Request: fold
Amino acid sequence: MSILIDPAAQTAQYIDSLGPEALAKAQAYTIGNHWLLLAGVLVSLLTALVMVRTGLMDWVAAKFSGLSWALATFLTGAAFLALSDLIQLPWVLLTSWQRERDFGLSSQPLGDYLGQWALDLGITVLFGGLFLLGIYALIRRTGARLWVWASGFTAIAVLLLLLALPSVFQPLFNKYEPVPAGQVRVALEKIADDVGIPHDRIFLYDGSRQSDRFTANVTGIGPTARIAISDVALKGASIDEVRAVTGHEAGHYKLGHVWRSLVAMPLLAMLIFWLVNRLFAPTARLLGSTATLAEPRGLPVFMVLSSVLSLLTLPITNTLTRNGETAADAYSLATVGEPDALASALVKTAEYRYPRPTELQEMLFYTHPSVEKRVRAAMEWKAAHPEGLATKP
Reply:
């Protein structure tokens, strides 16, 4: 049985409901983000040139040269992470704080933003320094086979991050509390039951502290898995929209997308380390560095190569994530059965993700399928199913 609707017409109605001014603003924001990806590589290049030409990293490495190899490597790596972030702070403030405020996507005060930036920097310096210590230990022991061993090391690091993220790191930046008793909690408990997450792992967090974006997430693996919904969603969404969006996020968990990432990311790391191993020496010469791959003072060269290679592999990673988002939408429709609520919730994300990109823009830059495509899929599901009926997969 099918509902007599026109999916194309209903999709156009949803997208056009934003109005031409909002659509133009979303397009400007989204295309600006695409240019910022390229600009970010140039900023990395300029940062590397500053650190190499001033001899900053040579000076840092010399300061720690009298220590044991492991401690000197850790401290040099940590210092590089701290110094590079400090050099790039004006750029970060312009693009990640001021720009978000200019487009009406955040109202976070500067002092609060800087406090959280400093906290993030501290975490990055500590754990990033340990990660770099592991990489340089592998370089010493494996030489040309670094790319194989580094991928395995990356897999372990990603696994530990996934385990620690919900319980250790996220609470440092936001306040997480149980979702209050009521209609929303009842709805979320049903979704939690569907994916095997205990009721005491359902949280509400103050996402409005950083952003006005409508969002929810299911993070963690195994005993650390939990459902978290931003207070933004509760303030500006219907109960059906909350159910539809949370059902989408639960779909990522139920379908095991996190495990796919544990395979894909190490494979990508293998490719990047293989290329870095071959491109490091000529890149160092171009930048004016005398460092070798095995020396932590060569981290500015490593940063440039990683930035360029990450940008070049973006279409691959984006394709993987888009496929996952499509599958999660389908899961939400099949289990929650709220196509109109999912569509209206998706339209609320269009303010920071232009809903009508070209096919090339979507392929290269979009981590999610376009909002127009996702709404169209929801309307096609609606046309193919009786209203209010959710067919379990």
Notes: Residues 389-393 have pLDDT under 50 and may be disordered. The beta strands are 176-178, 202-205, 216-219, 226-230.
